[in-house]
Write a structure and sequence with these properties.
The complex is a heterodimer of chains A (137) and B (138). Chain A has 137 residues and is of the alpha+beta class. Chain A contains three helices and four strands; from the N terminus they run ββββααα. Chain A folds into two domains: 48 residues, no CATH class; 76 residues, no CATH class. Chain A starts with 8 loop residues before the first strand and ends with a helix. Classes of the chains: A alpha+beta (137), B mainly beta (138). At the A-B interface, β1, β3 and α1 of A face β1, β5, β6, β8 and β9 of B.
């Protein structure tokens, strides 16, 4: 089978956490805090009184596209097809989930729709999760 | 619409300028994109012309600002990754469709990201960006 050489990549992963800026417990405006995560200096918003982060409204999810097939065998192409299908279903689920969480920011909805975790790991899980979300809407 | 994120052509051109030791600057600024519906990141977007009909926010705490933290990291090979964190605090009701990660001069966008869905922020809301870009030969 002919081999397909892939070139280098420039991958980007980015997530956004949308939170309320006022602590519900202390009714204080959150303040920016720099902290160390291992050797990495990071930033977050915390309550100056209790140290809690604001209530999460929605967290986006970065779905990475599948790697291109490395050969032209049926097995390689089938794997690529399955990975692509999963990527599409997962992307569709998270798109609907974030929109649902944003629309219902003041409602009491399950945390799974705000955090996106646990995220579906299989095609079947992605289909079931999408149907459940569709029913809720 | 899926969440899309990509390096822009003009960002790569800026990297090449750095390699050639021509006048160029590194990753330093970040700004939110305003659009009522989700956008789609495209390599051909530019600082002056973001994805689809998106525009840069110019006020309400979502405007261009220095990135809070930028750091190096390793994913596959030593030093192949750049990490960035930033918190926006909104001072009004706005739609946020994505972000642009820009250079020091604020005339080149390195990375464009369009979120899964538009974030409808209200006064005092915060948006915490956690970004990572890996350049490797895998």
């Amino acid at each position: 089978m002919p081999e397909v050489n892939t070139s280098g990549k420039m991958r980007v992963i980015a997530t956004a956490e949308h939170r309320e800026g006022v602590c519900r417990e202390c009714n204080k405006t959150l303040v920016k805090e720099f902290y160390m995560d291992g050797e990495r200096r990071r930033v977050r918003m915390v309550c100056p009184i209790c140290g809690e982060m604001g209530r999460l409204i929605a967290k986006t999810f970065s779905v990475q596209p599948p790697d291109p097939p490395q050969c032209l065998s049926a097995k390689c192409l089938y794997r690529f097809f399955i990975d692509t299908l999963f990527c599409a279903l997962l992307s569709n689920y998270h798109r609907r989930r974030v929109a649902y969480a944003e629309t219902n920011r003041h409602e009491d909805i399950p945390d799974i729709y705000r955090t996106g975790e646990p995220s579906p790991k299989t095609i079947w899980q992605a289909i079931v999760a999408s149907i459940r979300l569709y029913i809720r809407r | 619409m899926v969440q899309t994120q990509t390096w822009l052509d003009q960002g790569i051109a800026e990297l090449i300028l750095l390699l050639r030791e021509e006048p160029a600057t590194g990753m330093e600024s970040i700004v939110c994109l305003e659009m009522a519906t989700p956008c789609t990141a495209a390599a051909a977007s530019t600082f002056a012309d973001p994805a689809d009909t998106a525009i840069h926010h110019t006020d309400s705490g979502l405007e261009l600002a220095p990135i809070d933290t930028v750091a190096g990291d390793t994913v596959n090979t030593a030093g192949d990754t750049i990490l960035f964190d930033h918190v926006f605090t909104a001072t009004g009701t706005k739609n946020v469709a994505g972000i642009h990660v820009c250079n020091n001069d604020d005339d080149v966008t390195f990375i464009e990201c369009c979120f899964n869905a538009v974030l409808a922020v209200e006064n005092t809301d915060t948006i915490t960006i956690d970004g990572q870009s890996t350049i490797d030969q895998a």
